[in-house]
Amino acid sequence: KTMATQPITRDDAAGVSCFIRHNYHDHAAVTMYSYLMSRASKIVLDDNASDTITKTKRARGKFMMPFPTKLHIVLSIAENDGFDDIVSWQVHGRCFAVHKPQEFVDKILSTYFGQSKITSFQRQLSMYGFLRLAQGPDRGCYYHELFLKHKLYLCDDITRTGVNGNVVKRRVDPKTEPNFYLMPFVTPDPELPGFLLPFIKQEKW
């Protein structure tokens, strides 16, 4: 039986369905230009908004890159450096697969995430709302509707919803799984207007 971890507190577990229902919203049409314009309007309307878009977390005096952002970058490194036989995006760019779990642990988790167990990695995925697909050509892959190839900036809106040691496991309802092969494949964004380039460099994207 396929199981997945959903970030729901144990106190609330008794009142929820025993199945995880996939509720996928397509963000592939979002471009960096439209995203930046949307964020800029929110900053204007909210005086308390952060001056920067990319969020970091301070831990032990250092700034830590958020897990989804780091994972997105690692997938790009895997593709560019030739170890996408270990982990890679699926062809449509909407989910990713770990092809060789042991090599993933030995060569990637330890290097980029400071972890030694794939269960720790899976727990992180769960706490950020990633779900595992249970059937079809993407079986075993993980996805989040805001985690799309070519769209690193969307990772800024992926929030941590779970807490270590405070999650319950529920079965995935395969009937509600998205079929990514019936959706447009994710493609690179069009070139940004020149006036935005200095801002992008400042944000280090």
Describe the structure.
The protein has 205 residues and is α+β, with helices and mostly antiparallel strands. It is built from six helices and nine strands. It has helices at residues 10-13, 32-45, 67-81, 101-113, 118-127, 197-203, and strands spanning 3-6, 19-20, 57-59, 62-64, 87-89, 96-98, 131-132, 142-143, 168-172. The strands form four sheets. It has a three-stranded mixed β-sheet. The longest helix has 15 residues, at 67-81. 23% of the residues are buried. Mean pLDDT is 78; it is low at 1-17 and 43-56.
Task: Give the gist of this structure.
By secondary structure, the chain is of the alpha+beta class. It is 31% helix and 13% strand. It has helices spanning 10-13, 32-45, 67-81, 101-113, 118-127, 197-203; strands at residues 3-6, 19-20, 57-59, 62-64, 87-89, 96-98, 131-132, 142-143, 168-172.
| Distinct helical segment count | 6
Low-confidence stretches are: 1-17, 43-56
From the alpha-carbon coordinates, what is the Rg to the nearest angstrom? 18 Å
Could you describe the largest sheet, including whether it forms a barrel? 3 strands, mixed
Q: How far is the first residue's CA from the last residue's CA?
A: 40 Å
* Estimated structural class: alpha+beta
Share in helix: 25-40%
The count of strands amounts to: 9
